[in-house]
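Example record

The entry below shows one chain as it appears in the dataset: sequence first, then structure tokens.
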Amino acid sequence: MNTLLNHVHLARPALLWALAALPLIALLWTWRRRRSSVWRQNVDAHLLPHLLVAGGRRAWSGLALLLLGWTLAVVALAGPGWRQLPQPLWQAPAPLVVALDLSSRTTATDLPPSRLLQARAKLATLLRERSGGEVALLAYADDAFTVAPLTGDAANVALYLDALAPDVMPRDGQRADRAIEAGVLLLQQSGAKGGDILLLTDRADDAARAAAAAAKAQNIHVSVLGLGTAAGAAYRSGDGQIARAQLEPDTLRAVADAGGGRYAPVADDEGDLKALGVLTPRASAGEQQRREGEGLAWRDEGFWLLPPLMLLSLWAFRRRGVAAVALVCVMLPLAMPAPAQAAERNWWQRADQRDQQRVAEGVDAYRRGDFQAAQQQFEGVNDAEARYNLGNALARQGQYDAAIAAYDQALALRPGMPDAVANRAAVDAARKRKPPPGGGQQPQQQQQKQNQSQQSQQQQQQQQQKQDPSSKGEQGQPKPGQGTPPQDRQAGKPDPAEQARADAAQRERMRQALQKQQADAGSTPAQRREANETPQQREQRQAVEAWMRRVPDEPGNLLRQKFQLESERRKRDGQ
């Protein structure tokens, strides 16, 4: 018995305390049976001992089945197991923060065609070849700024590489210590217990070495990839001076040693990245120590006790109870929804997953130009990104007041959101733009419409006179009392050339009206709305669309504005 118990492992042994309720269950059973007896309700108490037989096999069997079922249920919940199985060890990969030097020294050409282009190519290789783990990208010069936060999709980070250049930074400089501190802050905000920072630069100072040592104390390793050569090359600094940039490996190696990482100079192949160990994410030290020595796991075998427990539960039903249970088991699969219906109801998705799906569908509709469908998708999600996208969709439909309200909601959820601030200012400016003064384009169009209306009336009169000869006498003379038309007073009859021009103009107007009708029948709601716009509304819409198209086409300008706003905010906050 002891040998058997030694081979049994309980995953949740504390649940065995529930077995202490067995005596209480027996007392409750006896008390309830005594109260529910029909004889005790109808026979005097002093006659019951002479009429009733105490005990009874059937009564005690029911109590035994109840106690046995309770025991089986408690033991099954305790998770008994008597064998161990190999367990795959999962170790959380340490996230990586890449800090790229974007000072003017990166324009040196000792790494042809330039250090900056070599660094971009190396980062592209890193993002493409890294096997898992979250990655973030920082850019630093006199200060450090976040280009892309920690994400598991390295392809999203690679989108910003072509826009990285020294001119996107607010001020020139080379503060590697601030880049390391910004990387530590990113890792702490993500909740990671450790991580790696990769610095791409050509030199470092004592402040950077001290920042790397502080990062190591928080289980964050700092590695350095050297950009440049010992010979160096000339470059033009931010203030226009010509200087020479050289690789200083000793200072970089000192930073790597202080940060518990590695140093490697940039190479033509992947040898430098392999030497730094950044292509394969390492496991954090806490996970490694916690799982060290674990290779087997006890298997919970409590499910084997469920079939006998289910059989015992059948005795709890009254007459015909077994048939009712069988009928329920047969009808249950028929009552379950089809897989397609279950997928439509999204029973297996969390609320955040449903919101993410709605945002993705809204983005697809926005890119197709269906701004109304995009608006419907974004309205169902209440976060900063969805409110910002809702404002864009409303602005593209000309609903400027609603768009500004959506931008305000996004800013309330995420104060200082740069894109929302910029788009709100553009839409507000378009909303406040007034129509041109009198004598401008709109009065000219009204005058043209009046002239066309007068010409149309004259042409209709000419056609009516041509098609209705009863308006003249037998010899073509006008009837009494009608007077003479202007052309009769001038020339006695209409000018054939003028009549031909009027007929051609009428046919042209009819053709244009027919084309407009056909175009309206096959156009989208957005196209029909644009056709019914006033010149002022069209001017406002075109201004907003031109401004909004300018943002994604020039990601460098977006980063420049983002960094400038962040720099001004830090100055204002005294950072």
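Notes for this example: The longest helix spans residues 441-467. The longest strand covers residues 144-151.
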